[in-house]
Amino acid sequence: MGAGEEALPTAASSAKRADARRNEKALLDAAASVFVTDGVDAPVRRIAAEAGVGMGTIYRHFPTRADLVVAVYRHQVDACAEAGPALLATATSPFAALGQWVTRFVDFLVTKHGLAAAMRDDPDGFAALHAVFLDRLVPVLADILAAARDAGEITAEVTAYQLLRAIGDICAGAERADPDYDARLTVRLLLEGCRR
């Protein structure tokens, strides 16, 4: 091969990359699950066991805990964003899609709460993640709300940004150890308040 020429991908290298992506997705899904039950400070060995990989695999992909937390956050933002169109296409109504999407979003927020502590030494990184969050999720929710509005299922004044902020504020209260507080119920009440 001459200078400046790139090797064409082979079927084996493409399969290897696809396998690596699947493994990383499984690792991120496992980490997210562990973060929900044990928090972002959960032992790496617990995440490795959940993912079915060795601890070295995790450290090879994510040298620091903050790297892992950020990757989980981005992974969940992407999953939330990708779920919007699929839910609109398969739900019984746009309002049903909205409810299903908000449930996913609330699940995502549960793992997000430890992010600030994990990134306290990187405020610029935290700000960049917040921008990713808004850039990816506001348009998806806006599309779902537009469909629900067009179907006459919600009031016209609800905006995607306001709804995301309201849900985030409700879920922030879930961190406190108050057995009488149910963030999911409160979010359901909020959605019912948006219904026409």
Compute the separation of the termini in Å: 65 Å
Helix percent reads: over 70%
Q: Structural class of the secondary elements?
A: mainly alpha
Task: Give the integer mean of the pLDDT values.
Answer: 84
Structure summary, number of beta strands: 0
- For the CA atoms, what is the radius of gyration? 20 Å
If you had to describe this structure to a student in words, what would you say it looks like?
The structure is a single chain. By secondary structure, the protein is mainly alpha-helical. The protein is built from nine helices and no strands. The chain has helices at 11-38, 44-51, 55-61, 65-90, 94-112, 115-118, 123-150, 160-172, 183-194. The longest helix is centred in the N-terminal third of the chain and has 28 residues, at 11-38.
Protein traits:
196 residues, 9 helices, 74% helix, mainly alpha
Any chance you could write out the topology, listing elements then pairs?
Layout: H1 11-38, H2 44-51, H3 55-61, H4 65-90, H5 94-112, H6 115-118, H7 123-150, H8 160-172, H9 183-194
Summarize this entry quickly.
By secondary structure, the chain is an all-alpha fold. The chain is built from 9 helices and no strands. α1 (11-38) packs across α2 (44-51), α4 packs antiparallel against α5 (94-112) and α4 (65-90) packs parallel to α7.
